[in-house]
Design goal:
Blueprint (H helix, E strand, L loop, with lengths): L12 H14 L12 H31 L1 H13 L6 H7 L2 H6 L1 H6 L1 H4 L1 H18 L6 H15 L2 H12 L5 H27 L9 H23 L12 H15 L9 H8 L2 H30 L4 H7 L2 H20 L3 H20 L3 H28 L4 H25 L9 H35 L15
Membrane topology: Multi-pass membrane protein
GO molecular function, one term: transmembrane transporter activity
Organism: Rhodocollybia butyracea
Length: about 475
């Protein structure tokens, strides 16, 4: 097993104590099992983990992303006229209220994940938001639609931070981004073609006396409920509590994590620990960076068909043209994730993708030719979508202990919800069709992301330099507690 010299930080006394307790308890786990550490065994175990986790998590997150952003398609499919969403700020309000419970409930949900069990809690969330999605087909006015959006945000709140938390506990730090990117690009591809599928569903208008947009919610909600039932049977748990690996394979996975960062086993989440973790200023910087990355992603998710229709294309062409930018984004996400893991570096690749986002939105916002504006959507979507798994991997690489991992992923993803609120409020109805104020605000946020990334990188570089000058290599020949840059 190759030794890794860039271990995550754990400078607080609480984290150091957590790490010691993990090491002590780990030595008593299945000590009688002898693990064969050849490369073929490692590949086989990782392949089993990948196949068990990534396709299912990718499909479930795809459904979550589709269910929260399909308002844009439903709007142009007739819902705006039927429910009066073009009046004032109603559409922005209905889009925005989803994120209020989504933000508030993410940290409590992550803290309760082990209490209720991964399979029980997450499968309940999937089935519940599927039921809400289905109910949206029958709302009589925009106020009931807003209520359903609040419930949708409530049940989706714990899902994304939980799966990021779970994935980060299974792999070594420089294997994480490819895995996060894999299930995220599945969702990106599904989201890209969901507009076309939704348009097909809307063609059922008149069947059973229902509007076309109602059929979008009915079919997508029913599909979510079905996969929620599948999730209850197959959702993976944490490595120390899994049921699909043998005892030998489980011990091997735990040893790999222990060698990489020393937190293979969980530490208890207490209120005191939560507040200690929240006092780490870097968590909030990660969160603001994630917010800046999600603003353009949500803006495209909610408004892409509207922006395309404003370029002169009719409904059918707007829906068809919404898919190619997502295909390009999926390819870009995986290439950058592979490079980031291969070079064991995060910040430079986040910076490159942020610049792509900035350039893309500048072209879409301020160039007049429709072809160039469409090309800008390719760059903007690819850059912002790629930054999302990049920032999640960046933050998860630089923390130690399950309790801090749970807090950090919840806080960071919560800021993604704030990004959703910002995106739905800065792209205002009165700014249609160019949305120049919203695009300008999005560009400004990318500049802020680059500045914060620079602050973190400089800080981490100086911290690592100080540690290398003072620390002594351990018995394994490595220097512990270095940040991933």
């Amino acid at each position: 097993m190759a030794t890794n010299s860039t271990l995550s930080e754990s400078h607080s006394g609480e984290d150091a104590a957590d790490k010691v307790s993990v090491l002590v308890s780990y030595s008593d786990i299945e000590g009688n099992v002898s693990v064969n550490r050849n490369a073929a065994f490692e590949r086989r175990v990782l392949r089993r983990i990948d196949l068990r986790m990534l396709p299912l998590l990718g499909v479930l997150y795809s459904l979550a992303l589709i269910d929260r952003t399909n308002l844009g398609v439903a709007r142009v499919a007739g819902m705006a006229e039927d429910l009066g969403l073009t009046v004032g700020t109603r559409y922005s309000l209905v889009s925005c209220v989803y994120f209020i419970p989504y933000i508030l409930l993410e940290l409590p949900s992550n803290a309760l994940l082990r209490v209720f069990g991964t399979r029980n809690l997450l499968s309940f969330c999937v089935i519940a938001w599927g039921a809400v999605q289905l109910a949206m087909a029958f709302v009589p006015n925009w106020k009931y639609l807003a209520l359903c959006r609040v419930l949708l945000g409530t049940f989706e709140a714990g899902f994304f931070p939980a799966i990021v938390f779970i994935v980060s506990t299974w792999y070594q730090r420089h294997e994480v981004q490819k895995r996060l990117a894999t299930f995220y690009l599945i969702s990106i591809l599904a989201g890209g073609f969901s507009a076309i599928a939704a348009y097909g569903f809307s063609r059922l208008a008149g069947r059973a006396g229902l509007h076309g947009w109602s059929w979008i919610f009915i079919i997508e909600g029913a599909l979510t409920i079905v996969f929620g039932c599948v999730a209850w049977m197959f959702l993976p748990d944490f490595p120390d509590n899994n049921t699909f690996l043998t005892s030998e394979e489980t011990k091997f996975v735990l040893e790999r994590i222990e060698e990489d960062r020393g937190d293979s086993l969980p530490d208890a989440i207490t209120l005191r620990k939560v507040f200690e973790h929240l006092s780490d200023w870097k968590i909030w910087i990660y969160g603001i960076m994630f917010m800046c990355a999600t603003i353009p992603a949500y803006a495209i998710g909610f408004f892409v068909t509207i922006i395309l229709s404003s370029m002169g294309w009719d409904l059918e062409h707007s829906l068809l043209l919404s898919a190619p930018p997502y295909v390009f984004a999926a390819l870009s996400i995986f290439v950058f994730a592979w490079l980031s893991d291969y070079f064991r570096s995060r910040a430079p690749f986040i910076a490159i993708q942020t610049v792509l986002t900035l350039i893309g939105f500048t072209i879409t916002g301020f160039v007049h030719q429709p072809g160039w504006r469409y090309f800008g959507l390719f760059l903007g979507n690819a850059g912002s979508a790629g930054c999302i798994p990049g920032i999640l991997a960046y933050s998860s690489n630089n923390i130690v202990s399950h309790s801090k991992r749970a807090v950090t992923t919840a806080v960071v993803v919560s800021f993604g919800g704030i990004g959703g609120i910002v995106a739905t409020t800065i792209f205002r109805q009165e700014d249609f069709p160019r949305y120049i104020p919203g695009i300008s605000a999005t560009i400004s946020c990318q500049v802020l992301l680059l500045a914060l990334l620079g602050v973190l990188t400089v800080n981490f570089w100086y911290q690592n330099k100080a540690i290398r000058m003072t620390a002594q290599p351990g018995s394994s020949g490595r220097i512990d507690l270095l940040y991933t840059l």
